[in-house]
Amino acid sequence: MTLTLVVGAVGAVIWFAGFDVVAHWGFGVFAILIASVQAIRVVGELRRSRFGIDILAIVATVAVGEVIASMIIVLMVSGGKALEDFAQGRAQRELTALLAREPRTAHRLDAGSLDTVDVPADDVVIGDLIRVLSGEAVPVDGILESSTAAFDQSSLTGESLPRNRSRGERVLSGSVNGNTSATIQATARAQDSEYQAIVALVKQASSNRAPVVRLADRYAVPFTVVSLLIAGVAWWLSGDPVRFAEVLVLATPCPLVLAAPVAFMGGMSRAARSGIIVKGGGVLELLARVRTAVFDKTGTLTHGRPEIVRIDALPPWDEDTLLTFVASAEEHSSHVLAASIVESARERGLTPLRVQRSTETAAEGVTAVLENHTVSVGTLRFARTSAPDVVEASLRGGEMAIYVVIDERAAGIVIASDGVRKNAAQTISGLRDEGVNRIVMLTGDAQTTADHIARAVGITEVRADCLPRDKVDILRGIVDRPVLMVGDGVNDSPVLASADIGIAMGARGATAASEAAAAVILLDDISVVVRAVRIGQDTVRIALQSIWIGMALSIGLMIVAAFGLIPATLGAATQEVVDLATILNALRALRDRQPAAKPASPVPVEVAVVRIGT
Predict the structure, then answer these.
(1) Cα(269)–Cα(151) distance, rounded to whole angstroms?
(2) Mean pLDDT, residues 67-80
(3) What's the order of all strands across the beta sheet hosting 461-463?
(4) Are the CB atoms for 351 and 323 separated by under 8 Å?
(5) Domains in the chain: how many in total?
(6) Residue 412: which CATH number?
(7) N or C: which end of the chain has fewer CB within 10 A?
(8) Which residue numbers are catalytic?
């Protein structure tokens, strides 16, 4: 691309200096050299049943003496290739970043002692005892040997709440340990564990993603055949080879070369303006034809962070007093709900109390002494150790209870939930309006939680308790394609990479989901998914319109030129007008879709009554 710009600038200087013949030959030779380089690439394209029109465009413009047009085409080809290489390089770097987060070291316990030896995760064999320190990722799948522990599995199942595990329960690699160390017994090698399977699935899906045939290529061969046929018939009937050249001047493939790229570039710019980063024009083409939409739950249809939804205080305590005690006890806790509780108290304007002393039991709860009261906050089992009369809360789907005991008496319950996005239901409805026939929700959460969220947003097809590999298997079995997948988090990376179009909710930063996806939404707004589909539909429609307008005008002018009514010089100038018309039409892809006109409301009419006479 840089070389083309330099050659163009030097040639322009030579041209205006009066050496137009030298510049003319220089442009022509350079364009032919570029065409020769492109010929190597076209051989590979033909093997995949694709036809590239780049060489045809360059050779045709040089053959008819349109060397300036040939240089423009060369610049377009090189610029497009540069953008394609940039996207591929970025995808490779993001995959490398995903691999870098893979657990690589394990603290293996020596037999007969409590000492640990750091070994590569790949060296762990089934049966080894592994110690996982606080905040560390579990290196391999295993069974918990400690009495209890809490693990953040959001990178695997998408669940925003931690999972409490007891001795003998399964622990997945990639899940993050809580605030105390835990011991697990390995049940799988590293290459067979869950997180490593995610990495392998992303690599496999990325390498197997089918290339998208460029829109204009579908019309290149028919257009070329028709052009050569008209030119050949004109030559045969007139017996004048000049007539052949006059027709070919009007057969330049600029409408095909320019219209679709300009439209898709406009669509990508419009998407970026709407907060959507699209990794290539082919994504827009697939978005225009999407027939099935698949959604993750946590962080996609929901906010992905727990919120306090209600506080059930028991006499003599009221809600504010109870929340003050709980927030004070949880202020320095590492529990995932602690931040939500403290934030809720801050929003109510409550001032935390001074904690005299505090102890935390991993995966169970916190006991703190404040204001001459002993406050215990945690799970039902933890609360009943202080007050056996604590009654289990009645929860709705997606909710979690935090039990509060004050001075060994049940004081109330704080209930948290990962709320549904306000515009989630509107988004589902909008996709159906855009022609999406089937909408599915896949989640690692329990069935009751999944059903609750699905009912709230209007989804009838739900698959719950899914691990990443389950989601990939379900997606691959969908027949009504193309399939759009919307997700957030490392656990969604394989299914995003496996989908025809993967869209990641990336507003909270670069995640493995955004790395594996074909498009990333930079706004924390799920309704942008509908906007992305609309942009894809508008872009393809405008690109097709531009292609057909360009081809129709060119063929009409070629027929006129076949009768000798358009000289070659005038034909070249006229063809530039055709190119301009197609480009201007393609630029409409930059504009947002106009909202549908509302039905006209009745117009009030004022009637004046005039009394005639007295």
Answers:
(1) 42
(2) 62
(3) 276-278, 519-521, 501-505, 483-487, 292-296, 438-442, 461-463
(4) no
(5) 4
(6) 3.40.1110.10
(7) C
(8) 296
